[in-house]
Amino acid sequence: MIKVLSPQEAKVELGKGALLVDVRELEEIEEFACDVPGTLAMPLSVFSDKCDELPKDRDLILVCAGGGRSLYAATLLTKLGYERVANLDGGVFMWNSVGLPVKKAGAGAESSVNSCKLW
Q: What's the 3-state SS for 22-75?
């Protein structure tokens, strides 16, 4: 069973060193993303080929727009033997709706994709 975290719970876990893995496509991340330093962008389109590069010794929180794609990715990881995996309930949209920081296109800020580490 995949652990599901509320945005507030995820924020606490991220503060303890968990890694946020955004599985949306880069164009989506460019438009709107959780503003979390060190976020790893690993789009679902390449996830199955690249996910074995994720650390098994660190808590991983997977995120997408609404929670469906990240749940799929989290399930794949558990089938590959990852034990420290959680899904962000409601995705980036829920994160934003509870007032947690996001990056949006425009606004003169650094690109959301450029602020993420790419696989």
A: ECCCHHHHHHEEECCCCCEECCHHHHHHHHHHCCCCCCEEEECCCCHHHHHHHH
